[in-house]
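Dissemination and training. As part of the outreach component of the grant, students in the summer workshop were shown how a complex can be specified as a set of sequence lines and then modelled as a single object. The example used during the hands-on session is reproduced here so that future cohorts can follow it. Participants entered these lines:
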Amino acid sequence: MTLSRRGLISAARALLPKDARIFQILFLALLLTTGVLLRDFSLHPLQMALAFAAGLATQAFWLKRLGLEQRGFLSAIVTCCGLSLLLRSDTLWAHPLAAMLAMSSKFVLRIHGKHLYNPANLGVILAITLIPGTWVSPGQWGNDLALAVWLLMLGTIVTTRARRLDISWMFLGAFLGLVALRVMLLGQSWAIWWHQLGNGALLLFAFFMISDPMTIPNRRAPRIAYALIVAAAAIGWQYLLFRPNALIWALFLATPLVPLLDRLFSGEGFSWRGPESARSTPLRACATFGTPPTAVAEGWPAPARSATTASSSFPALRSPTSAAPSSRPVRPAARVR
Amino acid sequence: MPYPPTRSAWLFVALALLLLVAFASTPASAFCGFYVGKADAKLFNEASQVILVRDGNRTVISMRNDFQGDLSEFALVVPVPAVLQKSQIHIGDPKTFERIDAYSAPRLAEYFDPNPCEAFKAQRQMGAMNAAPASMAKEEDRKDKALGVTVEARYTVGEYDIAILSATESNGLEAWLKQNGYRIPAGASKALRPYVRQNLKFFVARVNLAEQAKTGFSYLRPLQFAFESERFMLPVRLGMLNAKGPQDLVVYALTRNGRVETTNYRTVKLPANVELPTYTRAEFGKFYKALFETQSKREDYRVVWTEYFWDMAWCDPCAADPLSPEELKGAGVFWLGGNEPAIGVAPGTARPNIALRAGSGAQPVMLTRLHLRYTPETLPEDLMFQETQDRQNFQARYVLRHAWKGDAAACDAAPHYFDEVAKRQEREAQTLANLTGWDLNQIRARMSIAAAPGTLWWERLWK
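and obtained this result:
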């Protein structure tokens, strides 16, 4: 009886996706639909379709070329959703071109077994700087608190599953903290702070872009430092340089710090399908540039999953100390006299 | 004394804003309706109008002063990024505002259905196209300094006495303004503080009555100023001090490359390019006011509406001729060479359906017309803008289609045509009701149509 109940629970758990990207895709698709239907996004369905076609084709090309066919398309879908949410163009070819560049960057720009840039972030920056007729509409979400609450909730679920929630909260805290500081220093109305808090673009960035586990430092301490750096850069861009699209520019400019932080604070790499698979391959094994290693690069499944980990569908937030594989010798519990 | 004290002064203030989004019709497709009417900014009595010209960090702002009342009470306070030289300040021509308003106003266009018995082909074509959618005493100086206010410069330009102030704290600035005869509304100090702390300067203008008399005009001409700043924004918050209820702002943004939109508020295209009942022809202004009010309310006054975005070289249909290079220069456009060919269509000629500037390729001037209705609560932060790379034209254009006035028995195609007309009219009634919030049954009554005949299958069954 007990056994069968346990069996049912684990069967139900097994049905839930183990990969945080599944949730990410669901939520991004929901946001995209909401944006197009309720927020007047000036996005043509064909632009979206072409972005997906080009993004997936590029992913397929690189997987085949590098002999990684089994590695799938989830990340490509996430990137195409991100590009569709952010990039606006009055041509049809900008989205697919940006998607191609974004996906290719994942296979070409690699350091220590990790791709360097968040593909959607790089795709958007390349598009608005190089492709004529493209832009980003940071005001497109409006400043709606209800929407903000939804984004917070959905974002929390995704980042919890991806075990990188710390960076989202730290970034939001730092950014809104700096906005609050500015409000106080300038003697502005607190309504401005609330206005920023309700900014859909800010929350989307915090939970769906900067939280991308593959392109942030592996260890918690440098990750938090990184969140602070991005937040400070974004504030500077927005309030000292008075330029638009502060968030995506700040992330783009700060990204080269990631490999540096990883080198200074060595730590365990990330795998989309749970901590165990990442553990199964030591980080050093993938410290190669250009050739995707076995288990560390994003979205690529671990070669084997142990029986004990197969049903852990909801890994808890893991601190480097508590969840890292213990290499310390086990202490005797007590000395018997 | 810098200014003679006036019995009272009014703080009419800074404004702002903006613009937006383009979608819609492709430049290549000709438009075959006839322009019949427009809804210009005069409809909105309290609307502030600003022309914002921007390229790189060079900015020219023109502010239209539709101040009603005793001119001695007029005052304008605008935060500016630096001390402006006299040569950076200019008096504009009010006609520029009228021209740019007329050119970009929401417009009504009408079609006449062809004879269904003869004109299948023509009708198809139309369907396809329809889719496109001084002397200061030292004593005074000392007092000013005690208030933390420095008068950086004073000029008389046209009918305005202008002072450029810098201030170290907002209470001092408020006191200075009061001592110098500006009656400041409650809360001014608080509203001025963020600008003081950002080290912005204050452009303060009032009317020099003697100079004003010399101009011979009964109205105030627009003030223009040119400066360089990284900030692409309009300080609207100051203008809310005297606000009673929602305020309207119309911003005409002139840029070189693309559409302008706000970065800290949503910028949305106004619902447009829809067919309306033909009776709307006589009351287009009323319709447009209702539409704007309804749509703004629906968005809780938190949206900046784009009413128009088009390359200045042409228009289709034209609510007014495009602005000539001279007129654009008058509006503050600084990047046009001096030798452009004259405008293609002379004013006063019969209004063309499509006007294209003579010798024009693309005129490197894009006009974005933004219209915003807001309250202090819904607009907590000054408007920040960006120029996008978007070049897809958009206009708030509404269409009337007149039915063919023939006999249902004229030919085999006629009964089917009249069925289609009845369906179309019902759709038009619903569109009008939805856009304006007007009562659907009253609309139907005005159109002399019955309530959605036969739309439900069981109604048809037991009729």
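Chain B touches chain A through 36 residues (CB under 8 Å). Students were then asked to discuss how this feature might be tested experimentally.
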